[in-house]
Automatic annotation (TrEMBL):
Pfam families (UniProt xref): 2OG-FeII_Oxy, DIOX_N
UniProt GO molecular function: dioxygenase activity; metal ion binding
Keywords: Iron, Metal-binding, Oxidoreductase
SUPFAM superfamilies: Clavaminate synthase-like
Gene source species: Dioscorea zingiberensis
Top-rank taxon, per record: Eukaryota
Chain ranges of the Fe2OG dioxygenase domain: 205-305
PROSITE patterns the record matches: FE2OG_OXY
Record's protein name: Fe2OG dioxygenase domain-containing protein
Family the entry assigns: Belongs to the iron/ascorbate-dependent oxidoreductase family.
Length: 358
């Protein structure tokens, strides 16, 4: 689709941002054509899905109720080959997971314009905010998605900072995922041949962000994208998704659907875990397709430590993983510097991690 020479993208981005009503606001207004800021160039549009076969690859599924050795082995294999896995038997009650999805949907659909306007922000240091596209002015294309951003650790926001529509369940769900994070970092440490407390002692679990995404049904899904192709910046991501689908992971140069499994959580390696594991674990690119059905609701928990601006801890390949046969592959960096570089690039381009290779 040719874009007219008179197209002023910056002005249209600013006008969209100033509505403070996000993509859902466009749907409420009854649009039938996607605004130009959301159009993906024809050469970058996802191909139409082909008919699936029983032989199609599937993201590994790990039951945490299995024996410790089996869980460690399966997590190691998944992180080395896929960078993604789904887990069951994780201990978070299904009623809490369902309530979290319902609360996010309620916020995006029922919160008053006044509350959304109060929360709408692009201030980097703000702990609780609502916006559409964190990289709206940096990304190559606007994504068909709105987000409630809540920084839950190391400092938990006060109750009145959180939106009333999902306040209680946000606090409860965040506590459950933080406990699960301890288990996962133990298993990941053991998968790398380290002591169970190694990664947590490195402050990999120090910070926790919950990004509650809302993907409205799209009138022209074939020319838009829900979330552009990207890898995650932090150490580890834990995703709760509804049953709509649309998440895909890049595996062996093919896009593979991460098919929703009831009560499962999606786990994926972040850039910083790939860096400190010296490429043992892979932070792989993934995306979310736009769809005509929905809304799709998901809650992504990111474990990182860039919130501690005073931290002088430098991260590089873990020394126990370095030898003459496996020399360090990355420069050392402060987490806040890596994340700032990642955010400056926006989604959809070259991986930020490549700029830190030796």
């Amino acid at each position: 689709m040719a874009v007219p020479a008179s197209y002023d993208r910056a002005t249209e981005l600013k006008a969209f941002d100033e509505t403070k009503s996000g993509v859902r606001g466009l749907i409420v207004d009854g649009i039938t054509k996607v605004p130009r800021i959301f159009l993906v160039p024809p050469e970058d549009r996802p191909a139409k899905p082909s008919t699936k076969s029983l032989e199609s690859p599937q993201v590994p599924v790990v039951d945490l109720r299995s024996s410790r050795s089996e869980v460690v082995d399966r997590i190691r294999a998944a992180c080395e080959d896929w960078g993604f896995l789904q887990i069951v038997g994780h201990g978070i009650p299904e009623i809490v997971m369902d309530a979290m999805i319902d609360g996010v949907r309620r916020f995006h659909e029922e919160a008053s314009g006044e509350e959304k306007e109060r929360l709408y922000s692009r201030e980097p240091g703000r702990a609780v905010k609502y916006h559409s596209n964190f990289d709206l002015f940096q990304g190559r294309v606007a994504n068909w998605r709105d987000t409630l951003y809540c920084q839950m650790a190391p400092k938990q926001p006060s109750s009145n900072e959180l939106p009333a529509a999902c306040r209680e369940v946000l606090l409860e769900y965040a506590e459950h995922v933080m406990k699960l994070g301890s288990t996962l970092f133990e298993l990941l440490s053991e998968s790398l041949g380290l002591m169970p407390n190694h990664l947590e002692d490195m402050d990999c679990k120090q910070g926790q962000i919950l990004l509650s995404h809302y993907y409205p049904p799209c009138p022209e899904p074939e020319i838009t994208i829900g979330t552009s192709q990207h890898s995650d910046s932090g150490f580890l991501s834990v995703l709760l998704q509804d049953q709509i689908g649309g998440l895909q992971v890049l595996h062996n140069n093919n896009w593979v659907d991460v098919t929703p499994i009831p009560s499962a959580l999606v786990i994926n390696v972040g850039d910083l875990l790939q860096l400190i594991s010296n490429d043992r674990f892979k932070s792989v690119e993934h995306r979310v397709l736009s769809q005509s059905i929905g809304p799709r609701v998901s809650v992504a928990c990111f474990f990182s430590s860039h919130f501690n601006q005073a931290s002088t801890r430098v991260y590089g390949p873990i020394k126990e993983l370095i030898s003459e046969e496996t020399p360090p592959l990355y420069k050392e960096t402060l987490v806040r510097d890596y994340v700032a570089h990642y955010y400056s690039k926006g989604l959809g381009g070259k991986s930020a991690l490549e700029d830190f290779r030796l």
